[in-house]
Amino acid sequence: MGVASPVGLTPGGCAASHAAMRSRLLQRNLRVDPPLALTGQGMFIHDSNGRAVIDGSGGAAVACLGHGHPRVLEAMRAQMDRLSYAHTALYSCEPAEQLADLVLEGEPGGLTHLYLCSSGSEGVEAALKLARQYFVEIGQPNRRKFIARRQSYHGNTLGALAAGGNMMRRAIYQPILSDAFHHVSPCYAYRDRRDDESDAQYVARLAAELEAEFQTLGPDTVAAFIAEPVVGATLGCVAALPGYFQAVRAICDRHGALLILDEVMSGMGRTGTMHAWEQEGVPPDIQVVAKGLGGGYQPIGGIMIGGRIIEALRDGSGGFMHGHTYQAHPIASAAALAVQQVIREEGLLDNVRAMGALLEQRLTERLGNHRHVGDIRGRGLFWCAEFVADRASKAVFDPALKLNERIKREAYERGLACYPMAGTIDGKRGDHVILSPPYIATAADIEAIVARFGDAVDAAIASLPPGG
Ligand code: PLP
């Protein structure tokens, strides 16, 4: 706290000129040097602007235990003293084995094995490749296509990007993306359910669209359907309507395709149940997890795999034709093991549900009637506000105004970190902001987050040019 700004950084992280910039690290934005995050404690990050910022989004829905949790730090130190690395061609390691046992213990969906990698994108790549290998192993090598959803995000590596439907992220890479991926509509009732449709009719329409896509592609050429149970980084906390995932599961089963659920953002407790799909009652064949698995203490992701896929590999070639140098890394596994132990032993899912209900209530009170807030939605401690220029027409703001970035900056000025999204709405950039605090948040934290967020929204909108 109270640390002086290094040369070249100005309050709010905006460099005065290119000449003043000093970072040789390739940042997200080459025109702005961000402040340095110096220390983290509990809900707060202390930075080089001398600010203590409440981490209202846990980074990008990552820091589920907040920062500096002593038990996780101790587990990492202890593992470092024992063993930092051993290659998986020869060895397994204790923390990875224990982590697999813990996350699969009492697992309600019949998922029997865990593969560990280093990020969400790696997890998605592994899921796609495993689905493909499964069908080769069982004698259906013609299954090479995947169906995903528009307005979804599955990661930035080429396979994951091809699966995702976020047009802005895909645009410049489109010519080098695989043609094995095909997209249907997401379940996005706020914008896509017609006024004359009931929820059930809308779900039936989406199911018919998916069925038609299977027929167009040839049902026996489709390996898997992949979706986020609660859409994160493209639309902001959009859960499906009741019955949607049951309909999806039935279609996949009818055509012998696998269901891959990407819970990188929404999983490991974020939505109030350990797995987001539990609230749909529909287990996947392969589930991708990452952010909440290690809580940001180490880069770690993974896939949980259903028994029939493991059996097919065991009876067939004998192994997964895939792997990475750092898979099942001992220190990353030790960190994730401690994170998962803390979540379970401290009953943090109860807190996610209780604080999530408070967050919903306070957000609705503060912004529910705001003329530029079109929708407030979410589950557990995973909430989003979608901003509109006009509530009646749901028209988006001029994308050049970058309202969501303005909200992020105004929130930071008030000591709050939130997570802005630029989802694509009718081909245009929308304005969404996610609040996804750590599972350790108290009622006072939630009150502070919503108070600062509400003021930031008002200030950002007031900063728009007249008529904006
Ligand atoms: N899948 C989903 C649903 C995500 O939200 C993300 C990241 O936000 C990813 C995959 C990619 O994860 P990573 O950034 O760790 O590669």
- In whole angstroms, how far apart are the ends? 38 Å
Instruction: Output the radius of gyration.
Output: 22 Å
- Share of residues in strands: 15-25%
Mean pLDDT: 94
Low-confidence stretches: 1-16
- The CATH homologous superfamily of the largest domain corresponds to Type I PLP-dependent aspartate aminotransferase-like (Major domain)
The neighbouring-strand order within the major sheet is 4-12-11-10-7-5-6
CATH topology of the largest domain: Aspartate Aminotransferase, domain 2
* Distinct ligands, ions and cofactors found in the model: pyridoxal-5'-phosphate
The CATH architecture of the largest domain can be given as: 3-Layer(aba) Sandwich
Principal-axis shape: globular
The tally of structural domains comes to: 2
The number of helical runs is 15
Helix content: 25-40%
- The count of strands amounts to 19
The level-1 CATH class of the largest domain: Alpha Beta
Structural class: alpha/beta
Largest sheet: 7 strands, mixed
Query: What is the assembly state of the chains in this entry?
Result: single chain
